[in-house]
Amino acid sequence: MKKYKLIGPITQLLTMENLSVKGAIKDEELSILENAGILIEGDQIHTIGKFTELSKQADSLDAEIIELHGNYICVPGFIDAHTHICFSGSRARDYAMRNAGKSYLEIAEAGGGIWDTVTQTRKADQQQLTNSTIKRANKLLQTGITTIEVKSGYGLSVQEELKMLRAIKDANGSTEADLIATCLAGHMLPKDFDGDHKAYLEFMSNSLFPLLKKEKLTNRMDAFIEKSAFLPSDIYPYFKKAKAMGFDITVHADQFSVGGSEVAVKMNAISADHLEASTEDEIEMLANSDVISVALPGASIGLGCDFTPARKILDSGGALAIASDWNPGSAPMGDLLTQACILGTFEKLSNAEVLAGITFRGAKALNLHDRGQLSPGMLADFNLFQTNHYNEIFYQQGKLVPSQVWKRGDIMYSKE
Ligand code: NIG
Ligand code: FE
């Protein structure tokens, strides 16, 4: 295997460089290189430039030349910055009940809701969870998603949360996609825990956090702030402890009612995700902070709820990433590109803003600085779409799938 590879010529290569992390982006601001090539060294991008010029360099480096025939558009590998793909069981019954007009409470009383998935996930052994997570991750990789955040949160006891996070770690070792694990022990108060919300969180932070560090299972801590889950006053001591131990903070915020985004801002969280219920006040607060707002259109589509006010967030100067929230309950579709395009139509986002949301702004939502853009030194994670203009990718709303997916300098998938 040669150390260097040159791929091209590429009709349009969108580097996603020189764009602001915050605020609106016009399509005209995109830097688009025509007749481009990517020179790869190992797992990283060595040079991006005109294919004809790079060809000369490639000869002197004895690079493998992968010549493309026809029109190809190149974009960075997609980043799904919020998923719950480590789970067991189905919540198809919840979906049917919801659409038949049943309330959250009625569904929970019928044995549905998050607790149903907790019960099913607890029944699965670690290997089963590893296997199903690998399967889902590989499916996402084929659609061009090269980095996937994966949350725990269906264990809700020390041993069960460890089981999930160990399964995610093992899955990461067996899929070519990068899995970024997040601890969501603060998903809901487990029904079998004999205590109040504060006591549960105190217990978990004392017993689970040190083990997460010891086994290097995650450096990210999430919680669901909502009346049905945890209140801000429950979460502050939990997050403070997590922060003091070096965890990055991320929050399920403002999904049905406000409160979570304020916690995210006050705790200097990396991201505040959901935000469907955010009002002007929350949007302004987020825009004046370094917190990345993450829209989860899959949850709006799955629940039939309003979309995150993405346009307002961007126009107020906020940073907007877009993720799938793939989970068995609220977001069972798990199709990031389709969902991002649909959010684009409802919220009037430019194609540049949609693409930024699932590339470099997604990377920022995970505090990752080595991906999401195509430039020297970045990971060689990119997608090639067989079409003549990047607009086609968004126009076809997820139906145009990548012809080639490249991860860390190797081809993962080719449709030819
Ligand atoms: O992000 N909002 C809370 N948690 C998940 C839903 C999880 C579930 O329903 O299983 C979410 O939408
Ligand atoms: Fe979620």
Detailed description of the structure:
The protein is 38% helix and 22% strand. It is built from 16 helices and 16 strands. Helix 5 crosses helix 6 (158-174), helix 7 (197-214) runs parallel beside helix 8 (232-244) and helix 13 (336-347) crosses helix 14. The longest helix has 18 residues, at 197-214. Residues 82, 84, 252, 325, 327 line the site of fe (iii) ion. N-(iminomethyl)-L-glutamic acid is lined by residues 84, 114, 117, 224, 252, 255, 299, 325, 327-331.
Main beta-sheet annotation? 8 strands, mixed
* Helical stretch tally: 16
Distance between the termini: 22 Å
The count of strands amounts to 16
Unreliable segments (pLDDT under 50, ≥5 consecutive)? none
Classification by helices and strands: alpha/beta
Mind telling me the C-alpha Rg?
21 Å
Shape from CA axes? globular
Helix content: 25-40%
| Chemical compounds bound to the protein | N-(iminomethyl)-L-glutamic acid, fe (iii) ion
Beta-strand level of the residues, as a percent range? 15-25%
Mean pLDDT: 97
How are the SSEs placed, and which strands pair?
Layout: E1 4-14, E2 32-41, E3 44-50, H1 51-61, E4 64-67, E5 73-76, E6 78-80, H2 92-99, H3 104-109, H4 114-123, H5 126-142, E7 145-151, H6 158-174, E8 178-186, H7 197-214, E9 220-224, H8 232-244, E10 248-253, H9 260-266, E11 271-274, H10 280-287, E12 292-295, H11 297-303, H12 310-315, E13 320-322, H13 336-347, H14 351-357, H15 360-365, E14 382-385, H16 391-395, E15 404-407, E16 410-414
Parallel strand pairs: 1-4, 1-5, 6-7, 7-8, 8-9, 9-10, 10-11, 11-12, 12-13
Antiparallel strand pairs: 1-2, 2-3, 5-14, 14-15, 15-16
Helix pairs in contact: 5-6, 7-8, 13-14
The structure holds N-(iminomethyl)-L-glutamic acid (NIG) and fe (iii) ion.
The site of N-(iminomethyl)-L-glutamic acid has 13 residues, from helix 4.
